[in-house]
Amino acid sequence: MSRQSAKDHRALALISGGLDSQLAAKLISDQGIDVIGVNYRTGFTTEENDELFERIEEDLGLEIRRPGVDEKEYLKIIKSPDHGYGSAMNPCLDCRALVLREAKSYIEEISADFVVTGEVLGQRPMTQRKDTMNLVKRESGLDNRLLRPLSAKLLSPTLPEEKGWVNRDNLLDIEGRSRKVQLELADKLGINHYSQPAGGCLLTEKEFGHRLRELFDRRGREEVTAEEVKLLSHGRHFRLSNGAKAIIGRNEEENARLSNFSSDFWTISVKDFPGPLTLVTGRATEEELSFAARLTARYGQGRAEDNLETIAKKDGEQLFFQVEPLDPDSDSIGELRIESSN
């Protein structure tokens, strides 16, 4: 294979922010292939660091685009994944197939020839076994246009290898959970900025999974919206009834994040004292809004007052409640709060 033949082809590399995906992209770009990086934002990844991706672009010397996946399709697989959940509420196989289907559409848009990922055979028990890697390859529609450079020598040759666009001899045979080879290679290739393996998808986290399961059980899967699922990662959550829940910001940053959802839900705040912003999701009664106002006051700086004025707003409607802040020792706090499962 000549260097000129490599330059005639383009690859789309999925970049998660972690080390493996960067190594995979680098191995291919170093063979002279024109590589464009893409980081698909699902709305549930914990790695949203724009500065990190700027550093990754510098390390790899390539552009990284960051589109979102189809939100409706992603919500469908969260609610009912064809291949089930992992240890929490993580539909990893269905998610992987969806992202790769998005990549398949995108390579046609940008005239790329194949897709590169950083998957390592045997590294993850659900998605990186040989059988599940083959399943995802089939369901994505990419078939032999999906190249996994870090474990390529342990897998069947792909189209870019068979055509000579990529030299298979320069690909790797990494297998298992050890990170030693990858760390040594990162040092050699000058890759210095990446998220840690423990980071990643909120759906794999125990507390988030418990909140999601509780939401499905109390509201009904078909009734749950994408916004309600996204809100699970923000604030303190209190179940008011099957149809309503209060979400209370824990700091200014969370208040700001919750305010981005405010057009769809009731918002509650305390007048005259700094404190949290509360969202009330679902179909809340006036009595439930009043109780949510007491919860809101309990976490604000006016919690020691006997009587506070609070305001609830939604779609131009306003309700005012004079409330006594809920006692911090009230049994209601523990009974209604939604946290990790016991």
Structural description of this entry:
Helix 2 packs across helix 8 and helix 5 (92-109) crosses helix 6. 37% of the residues lie in helices and 15% in strands. By secondary structure, it is an alpha/beta fold. The chain has 13 helices and eleven strands. The longest helix has 18 residues, at 92-109. It folds into two domains: 3-189, Rossmann fold, CATH 3.40.50.620; 205-336, no CATH class. A six-stranded antiparallel beta sheet has the order 6-7-9-8-10-11, with helices on both faces. The protein has a five-stranded parallel beta sheet with strand order 3-2-1-4-5, with helices on both faces.
Question: Can I get a quick summary?
Answer:
With 342 residues, the chain is of the alpha/beta class. The protein contains 13 helices and eleven strands.
- Fraction of residues in β-strands: 15-25%
- Tally of discrete structural domains: 2
| Sheet with most strands: strand arrangement | 6-7-9-8-10-11
Mean pLDDT over the full residue set:
92
Structural class based on helices, strands and sheet pairing: alpha/beta
Report the C-alpha radius of gyration, rounded: 24 Å
| Top CATH class of the largest domain | Alpha Beta
CATH topology of the largest domain: Rossmann fold
**Looking at the structure, what is the overall shape?**
elongated
Task: Write out the CATH superfamily name of the largest domain.
Answer: HUPs
